[in-house]
Design a protein that fits this description.
Elements lengths: L4 E2 L5 H10 L5 H12 L13 H10 E2 L4 E7 L5 E6 L5 E8 L4 E4 L3 E3 L8 H5 L1 E4 L2 H17 L6 E4 L9 H12 L11 E5 L3 H10 L3 E5 L5 H7 L8 H13 L7 E7 L7 H11 L4 E7 L13 H13 L3 E4 L24 H5 L2
Parallel strand pairs: 1-2, 6-9, 9-10, 10-11, 11-12, 12-13, 13-14
Antiparallel strand pairs: 3-4, 4-5, 5-6, 7-8
Bound molecules: S-adenosyl-L-homocysteine and iron/sulfur cluster.
């Protein structure tokens, strides 16, 4: 028997093609997307504006399948963390961060990560596999269903959970299509952010393919240091990365900017000189810098820079005219802070497969 098509894998164009193959009219796409993404009805039998025959056919050839939620934890500051089972005892994590004027959902794109950044807990866990579009969309639907009942909403979605989204391009692009699609989540392009550690060829494709916001995990102003912290830098050094950033900034019709993430590591990348070098690197780039206090985890020897050091670093950037903010650490009591998302990765041996690009 051929496998059933999980409809959460299909963006609007794919769904139209799917219905055309079944000999159905194009308006079926709209009907089905409304059931799934607006009404949250996932049982074909309840989709009463579809003909009985179509409902039967869909039950035979398609499904709307969700992964299982293993646990859901509420931190004292309102952050919610879900652990989701992705088969074969592999878990991924997702975090909701409420703020006064918005609610950000931080989702995962891979089970683990192959890139092994030395300050990142996910990196230490190794890599198992890419998530499908359905597994990415299911995260947003699961969170949406849960939050709706408590009157909260998701205004922003960021690919800053587990994994490197630019090593899982197709699934992430289709997911972005659905996040932006008015028939699905209808978020504005500024409210969906792909965060990448700098997979240059993929970033060049991404610039053309999806009009979403971009965050770059920079973390060091020189190749010498970035080679150590973000090892993919050895393959795609800072100069190439900045060229790719330039392509992104000049693609599309609307004005764009890039958020540069910079984790603050005591005595590693937090000196006055580093700040000066960073300011020089970003001069003339439409950039905003996000300083992230390092969150520790058991396997790491790094320490977080002091609040005073972070402030001094920020002031150097300010003095050079660079927009900078310091990320407040959230959800620590449930291990939901940046870089603490470790999940539980069964087979950690697949790093080299994933890094090929
Ligand atoms: N792979 C992508 C997206 C996931 S990581 C990327 O690297 O951009 C999301 C963000 O969390 C990145 O900026 C990453 O550098 C940061 N991060 C990872 N480990 C961290 C830690 N221990 N403390 C603080 N931030 C961390
Ligand atoms: Fe992967 Fe991002 Fe962690 Fe680096 S920081 S190991 S790219 S998840």
């Amino acid at each position: 028997m051929t496998q059933k098509q999980n409809l959460l894998n299909l963006n609007q164009a794919d769904l139209s093609e799917f219905f055309a193959k079944l000999g159905e009219k194009p308006f079926r796409t709209k009907q089905l997307m409304k059931w799934i993404y607006k009404d949250h009805v996932f049982d074909f039998d309840q989709m009463l504006n579809l003909s009985k025959k179509l409902r039967e056919t869909l039950s035979e050839v398609a499904c709307i399948d969700f992964p299982e939620v293993v646990s859901k934890n509420h931190a004292l500051d309102g952050v919610v963390k879900w652990v989701i089972e992705m088969g074969s005892d592999n878990h991924i994590e997702m975090v909701y961060i409420p703020e006064k004027d918005r609610g950000t959902l931080c989702i995962s794109s891979q089970v683990g990560c192959a890139l092994a950044c030395t300050f990142c807990s996910t990196g230490y866990q190794g890599f198992n596999r890419n998530l499908s579009t359905a597994e990415i969309m299911a995260q947003v639907l699961i969170a949406n269903l849960h939050l709706k009942s408590s009157g909260k909403r998701i205004s922003n979605v960021v690919f800053m959970g587990m994994g490197e989204p630019m090593l899982n391009e197709e699934a992430v692009y289709s997911a972005c299509d659905l996040l932006l699609d008015d028939l699905a989540f209808g978020l504005s392009r500024r409210k969906v952010t792909i965060s990448s550690s700098g997979v240059v060829p993929a970033l060049l494709r991404m610039s053309e393919r999806v009009p979403v916001s971009l965050a770059i995990s920079l973390h060091a102003p020189t190749d010498e240091l970035r080679d150590v912290l973000v090892p993919i830098n050895k393959k795609y050094p800072i100069k190439e990365l900045m060229k790719a950033c330039d392509v992104y900034l000049n693609a599309g019709k609307q004005e764009r900017h890039i958020l540069f993430e910079y984790v603050m590591l005591k005595d590693i990348n937090d000196s006055n000189e580093h700040a000066q070098q960073l300011a020089k690197l970003l001069k003339g780039v439409s950039a905003k810098v996000n300083l992230i206090p390092f969150n520790s985890f058991p396997q790491s020897d790094y320490q977080v820079s002091s609040a005073r050091t972070i402030e001094k670093f920020q002031n150097v950037l300010f003095s050079q005219g660079i927009r900078t903010m310091t990320r407040r650490t959230r959800g620590e009591d449930v291990d939901a802070a940046c870089g603490q998302l470790a999940g539980k990765i069964k087979d950690k041996t697949k790093r080299s497969d994933a890094r090929r690009n």
